[in-house]
Design brief:
It is found in: Membrane. Keywords: Membrane, Transmembrane, Transmembrane helix. 69% of the residues lie in helices and 3% in strands. It contains 17 helices and 6 strands. A two-stranded antiparallel sheet has the order 1-2. A hairpin with a 2-residue loop joins β5 and β6. The longest helix is centred in the middle third of the chain and has 42 residues, at 207-248. The chain is globular, with a radius of gyration of 34 Å.
């Protein structure tokens, strides 16, 4: 998946270069982008643009930086709220497990962990979607308040804010299950607690299966809800708009609407931000946690197959044709995708090393038994002496870590270092092999630059010839003799 992610991004660079050249947007941001209308209306003063020399609306950079810093404090506060919700979901999971154990039903007691995990994942999904809507509206207001000059700067700032929040919002719970759940349980007589409740432990199968369940519910559940929203909400908006127009036309003579009027009566297009955000979050799910949930790419493929048709229906039949805007690339979204592809290598290395049983089994096969006989019993720890009742028949002399634990820790860290170096090296090789600009496009751009220079040189030569010709003509006219028969009108004859 890491190789696929980098290859995908490399070929997107090539596609992006082709599109930017086709629409003449290769240097659009630096040279041609004008200030935003909102910025022009709200800017407190005017200042000369150092590039164009024209007077433009101006907003002090120090004031903007202070506003960005204040907005960052708001973002941190909202992220703390996400952490509070995460702790709430953890406590909910513990309460549900206790309730299942106290029902007296053998079936519920057996499945208490699964019931608590699945129900808490659903509650977490609902909180994630709710907080996402709230924060998107808040981030929009913060970005407007920061007064960014161009539309590209505004969209990049808004995108970065929303993604940082959504990243923590969607991925905090899977991160907890993958790397923290079951690490601070303690032992009988000395259990770890959180707000008076005993820290939860992973099931007998380990945390990886619980992580897969949670990823399935969050990822697939989000996709289903988003697809339902993309189908239902435009229909409801269109119905509401038709009723509103019908009320306006109620007193008018009914006549058949023209095509352009019907197009204008469609609902206004809201842009592509939500579409990009959905794809980028999906990209994170299928790359960061693929070691725990290998079916994620399959569900992403099925979702995208459905979503293409839903988006076609929405943009063609429900929305007005959007106003085209020139841009050089997809902005900060590409940087986010690159960061996710690199983060996925590190996260998957830690998942394989610390969350899965791959390395413990490998080391047990090497040191004890190649057929894994006795591995399950070997992996179970006994309680330290004094922590169990007098009827206990088995306990360790002390609660210290064994030599195998330290050997396994060294193997895990060595695996992470080797895995990351090998994968990152291969990614750099792919980056080096695949050029960012297709060869045919590079040749076309070189040809265009050559023709532009040639045309400029020819134009300069032509101007020089014209200036020399006009100068020589004036010299010849000034030296013409005055005819003798002109008499007193010599000046007119000369002219």
């Amino acid at each position: 998946m890491s190789f696929w992610a980098v290859t995908f991004l490399e070929y997107w660079k090539r596609k992006n270069a082709t599109l930017a050249h086709h629409w003449d947007c290769m240097d659009f941001q630096e040279n041609e982008e004008r200030p935003r209308p909102e910025f022009v209306a709200m800017a407190p003063g005017m200042e000369q643009n150092p590039v164009t020399g024209a007077m433009e609306p101006y907003f002090p950079e120090k004031t903007r930086q202070s506003r960005i810093l204040t907005g960052s404090m708001v973002i941190i506060f909202m992220l703390c709220i996400v952490m509070i919700f995460l702790v709430t979901v953890i406590m909910y999971r513990g309460i549900i497990s206790m309730m299942m154990y106290h029902t007296g039903s053998s079936v519920l007691r057996t499945q208490a962990g699964n019931i608590a995990n699945i129900s808490s994942s659903m509650v977490n999904l609902a909180l994630i979607l709710l907080m996402g809507q709230v924060y998107t509206a808040l981030a929009e207001q913060l970005t407007k308040w920061e007064m960014h000059r161009t539309q590209t700067q505004y969209e990049d700032a808004f995108t970065f804010k929303v993604f940082i929040f959504q990243f923590v919002n969607f991925y905090s719970s899977p991160f907890y299950v993958a790397f923290f759940k079951g690490r601070f349980v303690g032992y009988p007589g000395h259990y770890g607690t959180l707000l008076g409740m005993r820290n939860e432990d992973c099931g007998p199968g380990g945390c990886l299966i619980e992580l897969a369940e949670q990823l399935f519910i969050i990822m697939v559940g989000k996709q289903i809800i988003n697809n339902i929203q993309e189908f239902v909400i435009p229909k409801m908006k269109a119905w509401k708009q038709k009723r509103k127009i019908a009320k306006v036309r109620g007193t008018q003579i009914s006549q058949e609407s023209k095509r352009w009027e019907e197009d204008y009566e469609l609902i206004e297009c809201e842009g592509l931000f939500e579409e990009y955000l959905e794809m980028v979050l999906q990209f994170g799910f299928i790359t960061i946690f693929v070691a725990a949930f290998p079916l994620a790419p399959l569900f992403a493929l099925l979702n995208n197959w459905v979503e293409i048709r839903l988006d076609a229906q929405k943009f063609v039949c429900e929305y007005r044709r959007p106003v085209a805007e020139r841009t050089q690339d997809i902005g900060v979204w590409f940087n986010i995708l690159e960061a996710l592809s690199h983060l996925s290598v590190i996260i998957n290395a830690f998942l394989i090393a610390f969350t899965s049983d791959f390395l413990p089994r490998l080391l047990y096969q090497y040191k004890h038994d190649s057929n894994l006989h006795g591995y399950v019993n070997f992996s179970l720890a006994y309680a330290p002496s004094g922590s169990m009742d007098s009827n206990s028949s088995q306990c360790r002399e002390s609660g210290n870590y064994t030599l195998f634990y330290w050997e396994l820790l060294a193997v895990r860290l060595g695996f992470i270092i080797a895995f990351e170096h090998v994968v990152f090296f291969m990614l750099r090789v792919i980056d080096w092999i695949v050029p960012d600009v297709p060869e045919s496009l590079a040749l076309k751009m070189k040809r265009e630059r050559y023709l532009a220079k040639q045309a400029l040189a020819d134009n300069q030569d032509a101007l020089l010839m014209v200036s020399r010709g006009s100068a020589s003509s004036e010299g010849h006219f000034s030296e013409l003799p005055i005819p003798t028969d002109c008499g007193t009108k010599a000046a007119q004859c000369h002219s």
